[in-house]
Amino acid sequence: MPKITFIEHNGNEHQVEAAVGLTVKDAAINNMVPGVLAECGGNCACATCHVYVDHAWTDKVGPANEMEADMLDFAHAPQENSRLSCQVEITAELDGLVVRTPEKQ
């Protein structure tokens, strides 16, 4: 299973394994990673699963679609590497993915 490293805004790291086909949000929630709330349950209807994709991974993860980009307007301190973790599907190619959580959701 692919491994994903979540880095909290304070520097604490959480490395988790997640099955291909789940989302990065699922990996965080299933492993109780702090900083990913996902209040809408992964429906791209809020921005409480906002993460920053490590710059080394942005090309592999790809850009947000229009709906996600609109929702990111509601995220705390969005950046060019911001994504909603509910919209990033885990693939074998994302083994080693690193994402950071914002200071608040």
Q: Helical residue percent? A: 10-25%
How would you sum up the global shape? globular
The helix/strand class is alpha+beta
Domain module count: 1
Can you identify the CATH class?
Alpha Beta
What is the succession of H and E elements? EEHEHHEE
Summarize the main sheet: 5 strands, mixed
Mean pLDDT: 97
The value of Rg in angstroms is: 12 Å
Q: Name the CATH superfamily assignment.
A: Beta-grasp domain
The total of helices stands at 3
Low-confidence stretches: none
> Would you count the extended β strands for me?
5
Structure description:
There is one protein chain. The protein is α+β, with helices and mostly antiparallel strands. It has one domain (3-95): Beta-grasp domain (Ubiquitin-like (UB roll)), CATH 3.10.20. The protein has three helices and five strands. The protein has helices at 24-30, 58-61, 66-72; strands spanning 3-7, 13-17, 50-53, 82-84, 97-100. The chain has a five-stranded mixed β-sheet. Strand 1 and strand 2 (13-17) form a beta hairpin.
Would you summarize the structure shown here?
Helices cover 17% and strands 20% of the residues.
Topology:
Layout: E1 3-7, E2 13-17, H1 24-30, E3 50-53, H2 58-61, H3 66-72, E4 82-84, E5 97-100
Parallel strand pairs: 1-5
Antiparallel strand pairs: 1-2, 3-4, 3-5
Task: Provide the descriptors you would attach to this structure in a database record.
105 residues; Ubiquitin-like (UB roll); 5-stranded mixed beta sheet; 5 strands; 20% strand
